[in-house]
Amino acid sequence: xxxxxxxxxNIPIISWIVLKGKCRSCHQPISPRYIITEIFGGILFLVLYxxxxxxxxxxxxxxxxxxxxxxxxxxxxxxxLFLYISAYVDSKTYIAPISLSVVMxxxxxxxxxxxxxxxxxxxxxxxxxxxxPVGVLLLxxxxxxxxxxxxxIGLGDVIIFGILGFAMGGIQLIMVVFFSSFICSVVxxxxxxx
Length: 194
Known about the structure:
Structural class: mainly alpha
Helix content: over 70%
Radius of gyration: 20 Å
């Protein structure tokens, strides 16, 4: 039996609560990961908006129409949300979906083009953030495949690192790599201890 699709059942967070986590038509449970993703996405949008409007802005907690800040906040929110979804899919299938990477690249490009057209600055940090990780990781990939006959990382990971570097810039990407490596190390140590 195919479930009937009802548009007003697609309201983020509210629909899941109203339906008590079950499909209206077939009464099958709806995974809590959907509401978690929706809450995570909402919080992400708010945090990044106020980060760009307040911390990187003029220190006034007011809505701003500054195109760089607004596009940066929205683009990074969507990139991180799709990165979260991509990580979930990757954890289940060991494949980083190229379709999600394309969407992330579109948002990164929107952020970069807004920055370029408003400031007339080429944004060297963003371009280096794109080219250096991709170049280094591809070099490692090619050497390992040719010499050791193994794939050290997937090409999907190379693409994602390039997109993140393009969206955030090289310096921020280094910080992300450092902190994510540290967090993964802590998690792995805890798992080994248990």
